[in-house]
Structure formats: structure tokens, C-alpha cells
Amino acid sequence: MLGGMMLRRLRCVPSLVRPPLKFFSYSSSTSRSTSSVKDSAAAISKSAAAGAADALEDDEELLESVVSVRPVTFPVLLEPRVVVYDGVCHLCHRGVKWVIQVDKQAKIKFCCVQSLAAEPYLRLCGLEREDVLRRFLFVEGPGLYHQGSTAALKVLSHLPLPYSALSSLLIVPAPLLDAVYDHVAKRRYGWFGKADNCLVLNDTELLDRFIDKDEMTGK
User: Which InterPro entries does the UniProt record give (predicted)?
Assistant: First the structure.
């Protein structure tokens, strides 16, 4: 009887044995769902990256278009009282040498029309090189330029006396003076000769008066 009672008490004591652990695992449907989430995230990332790349490309194209429309330029500083002349003409070169010799204050500067430095002056006056080969150019200042006989007399006006007095010939009608100028200019090569290069390179002591000095000397 006592044994039966003890047996019943033992049956009433809670079991101290822990249940076996179970590892939680995704079912096949859960795995597919997770995979689809990952794929969606990857697709979104790719789409975002593609959108960013397209936006960057659009920005680059816009920048290129702006740069192409508005290039960066620097102002060209033009000097006043510049004679632009035919640098290979012997007669013209003699005239330049004479002006440099007389112009002790170095008021007048020079530039060969064959050089690149002459281009801003030609553009300023709306002239081509052929125009200056027919009649030399004297750019006296902003909006003030002369050609032919008038240019020669204007150059004389900046020289000291008695040479500046010759500028009084400006009262003579320009067509008459230009007729004489053009007659000589058309025959200058035949009468005085023509060089292959700018003649001032043979007189390097004159180069300090030339705005295209660096170009001609290759500096």
C-alpha cells in the first residue's frame, strides 16, 4: 500500500526533463519570398544607380553645351598708335626705320600684317590682310584708324618738329593724295623689291618697337 502511494506521488511530480530544441527553418515559400525581396532590393538599387548615371550624364551634356556656347575668353589689350604694315616690303621697311629713328619718344609702335598679333587690330577695324597690303593701317586709338596717305600724315603728326608740320597736308583732299599713294603702292615690289620674311628680323635692334616681337623671335 505504501509503495502504491509513493508511486502515485512520483507520477504527480512534474517532469524535469526539458523538451528537445527545434531549429526554426524557413519553409520553401518563405525562402522564395525572401529571395524575391532581395531581388526587388537589387532591382531598386540598379534602377537608382541607372537614374543617377543618367542624371550625371545629362549634367555633363548640359555643362558641355554651356561651355561650347560660352567659351572662356580673355580680353586682348590693344595698344594705341600702332602701324600695321607689309613686313616684306622693302619700301615699307625703310619708312618704318625712318620713323623709329625720328620718334625719340617712342610714341609709335609697329606690327607686321603677316603676324598673328595683327589680327585683333584688323578685326577692330573690320579689315582683311589684303586691305592692309594695299594701304597700310595706323590705329591711332579706340574707334580711330586711318589708311593710306591719311595714315602716313597722321603718323607724322605724332613726330617732333619739323616733321609734324607735314601733317598740315591733311587739308588736301584725301582722294588726290591716295591716288599718288596707290600708284606707288601697286609698283613697290617691282621698284624696291620684296623679301621672303619680315625685314625687321634683319634689324633686331628695332624689335623693341614691335608689338609682335615675341612672335617673330619665337619666344
Answer: DCC1-like (IPR007263), DCC_oxidoreductase (IPR052927)
What length does the chain have? Answer: 219
Sheet holding 82-85, edge to edge: 109-112, 82-85, 137-141, 144-147
Provide the residue ranges of all domains of the chain, joining segments of one domain with +. Answer: 82-217
Check pLDDT > 80 for residue 97: yes
* pLDDT bracket for residue 42 (50, 70, 90): low
Beta bridge partners of 139: 82, 145
Q: Is the distance from CB of 147 to CB of 135 less than 8 angstroms?
A: yes
Q: Is the pTM of this model over 0.85?
A: no
140 in Cβ contact with 111 (< 8 Å)? no
**How far, in Å, CA of 165 to CA of 169, rounded?**
8
Phi, psi for 137 (deg, rounded to 5): -115, 135
d(CA 134, CA 181): 10
pLDDT of residue 23: 27
